[in-house]
Design goal:
heterodimer; A: 113 residues; mainly beta; 6-stranded mixed beta sheet; 4-stranded antiparallel beta sheet; 55% strand; B: 112 residues; 7-stranded mixed beta sheet; 11 strands
Chain lengths: 113, 112
């Protein structure tokens, strides 16, 4: 069975510092990988996804994630965070296009001034 | 463009009452998903539909829960009778390719 582990439940960081949110998954088949962001009292928004091709994927607001098949990881990084990046971040995996997303427990990113 | 629309945004009711949550997916999307989010269990997929047909309901916790999709633009999740442990945020999501899912803002349900 698939599973997703987000290794940190909370990550406090100062504004303009770099950040990495860690995600590991377990699956015996090819997977699609996602990062979603959730702001307070809102639904989840897709941040970025890996489906195939280049293992490094980027979002429009400066986040990037790298698919590492050998380590079964999909860590999320940003070189310089802003106060507005404060939110809950969820890593998710699905097997192909079955549509079934398995989510990690989430990581709260708290950016301090 | 309108996103996924859920109603109500908040629901508070007493144990034993019937609860109906509603979802309008994005026009043109043919897959619809219902999730439940709690502090203890995180985000769980309850059921999903493809072309209005339930494909996988293995996540539905028990017979008190039921979901329907009578047409491509509307779905309901019903809990009858409701219990305090059903308190959670319920999300609906839709997709046109079953890969990228677009979420609504959720219904925060409190069962007293």
């Amino acid at each position: 069975a698939q599973s997703v582990t987000q290794l940190d439940s909370q990550v406090p960081v100062f504004e303009e510092a770099p950040v990495e949110l860690r995600c590991n998954y377990s699956s015996s088949v090819s997977v699609y990988l996602f990062w979603y962001v959730q702001y307070p009292n809102q639904g989840l928004q897709l941040l970025l996804k890996y489906l195939s091709g280049s293992t490094l994927v980027e979002s429009i607001n400066g986040f990037e994630a790298e698919f590492n098949k050998s380590q079964t990881s999909f860590h999320l990084r940003k070189p310089s965070v802003h106060i507005s990046d404060t939110a809950e971040y969820f890593c998710a995996v699905s097997e192909g296009n079955t549509g079934k997303l398995i989510f990690g427990q989430g990581t709260t990113l708290q950016v301090k001034p | 463009d309108a996103g996924v629309i859920q109603s109500p945004r908040h629901e508070v009711t007493e144990m034993g009452q019937e609860v109906t949550l509603r979802c309008k997916p994005i026009s043109g999307h043919n897959s619809l998903f219902w999730y439940r989010q709690t502090m203890m269990r995180g985000l769980e997929l309850l059921i999903y539909f493809n072309n209005n047909v339930p494909i996988d309901d293995s996540g539905m916790p028990e017979d008190r829960f039921s979901a329907k999709m009578p047409n491509a633009s509307f779905s309901t999740l019903k809990i009858q009778p409701s219990e305090p442990r059903d308190s959670a945020v319920y999300f609906c999501a839709s997709s046109f390719d079953r890969v990228v899912q677009h979420f609504g803002d959720g219904t925060r349900l409190s069962i007293l």
